[in-house]
Amino acid sequence: MANILILGAGSMGTAFSYPCSDNDHTVSIIGTHLENDFVDQINLKKKHPILNTDIPKNVKFFKLKNLEDEIKKKVDLIVIAVIAKGIEWAALQLSKVIKNDIPILILTKGLSINNNNYEILANKMERILKKNGIKDTNISAAGGPCLAKGLAKKVHTSVIFANTKIDIANKIKNLVSTNYYHISTTDDVIGVEVCAAIKNIFSMVIGSTEDLNTAAALIKQSIDEMIIFTEKLNGKKETVMGLAGIGDLYVSADGGRNSKMGKFLGKGMSFKEAKEKKMQKETIEGADLAMEIGDMVRKDFDSTSLPLMISVIETICDKKKLEIRWEKFN
């Protein structure tokens, strides 16, 4: 039995606790500084209000003020389940309380810019931890298609864990695998994280159409562009063709917030209009990513090599209506 700490009390962090619980691990879920009332609500009703499921056995929810006390209970694995914008915050919180090389698994999907370079979240967390005195780090990243509500219902779910030290990824796999939570491993951390992030951009443009013929063409072009972008950042083509790429793109394009935003963009609404009128309180990961990496992408690529990605970036960053440049498809 292991002691697992999950930082983030939202849907994905809580869903991840189900396979952990089913393997008889003890799980402490720590809410962020914005989730104090949310944690109180969960503890009062013994249900997760978003997942609408009972809290699993051996799982307890705590407020952020309890982070240090829970870390002291000889934690075997720390799981990060905050939004992409919260990775720096999470790294800073952990740097205050961890004293040794505790394995960290990042469920968060995103990509950043640091010193005019693309930075995957595992590297970002490692950089911040080291800057704040944590010399030894051990960070893995999760990718692949995994909707929180499905995992909480224990439907068959296949994901991939990545670490340059494959034995560490395999140890975490052995810790949390179940008969419904199926895990592959790879040493291609860059490929997994890049695919996990940029598929949100392509999910928006695929979601912009309700016609299956058009969607199929957009999916094919999305995969081509994901390969170009991932290989540019030194990730592997085969990662794009697996769970982290095609698998995650399929799930995200079929439903979810990014696809929903794409539907509004496809109807001629601007991103600002759709966000304010239709999705005001929802996080649109693909849009956040476009704003984060958009300028760098437009420096490194043109609309001939990445016509779909550039179109979405222009839609989000330049406040344009979505325009798909079919004539530039490969």
Report on the architecture of this protein.
The chain is an alpha/beta fold. Helix content is 49%, strand content 15%. It contains 15 helices and 12 strands. The protein has helices at residues 11-22, 36-45, 67-71, 87-95, 121-131, 148-152, 166-176, 189-206, 212-232, 237-240, 243-254, 257-266, 271-277, 285-300, 307-317; strands at 3-7, 26-30, 47-48, 53-54, 59-62, 77-80, 104-106, 111-114, 117-120, 139-143, 157-162, 181-186. An 8-stranded mixed sheet has the order 5-2-1-6-7-10-11-12, sandwiched between helices. Helix 4 (87-95) packs parallel to helix 5 (121-131), helix 8 runs parallel beside helix 12 (257-266) and helix 14 crosses helix 15 (307-317). The longest helix is centred in the last third of the chain and has 21 residues, at 212-232. The chain is globular, with a radius of gyration of 19 Å.
Task: Give a brief outline of the structure.
The protein has helices spanning 11-22, 36-45, 67-71, 87-95, 121-131, 148-152, 166-176, 189-206, 212-232, 237-240, 243-254, 257-266, 271-277, 285-300, 307-317, and strands at 3-7, 26-30, 47-48, 53-54, 59-62, 77-80, 104-106, 111-114, 117-120, 139-143, 157-162, 181-186. By secondary structure, the chain is an alpha/beta fold.
Order of helical and strand elements:
EHEHEEEHEHEEEHEHEHEHHHHHHHH
Strand line-up in the sheet with most strands: 5-2-1-6-7-10-11-12
Poorly predicted regions: none
Radius of gyration: 19 Å
How would you state the average pLDDT, rounded?
94
Number of helices: 15
**Largest pleated sheet:** 8 strands, mixed
The geometry reads as globular
Helix percentage = 40-55%
Beta percentage is: 15-25%
From the N-terminal CA to the C-terminal CA, the straight-line distance is 51 Å
The secondary structure category is alpha/beta
Number of strands: 12
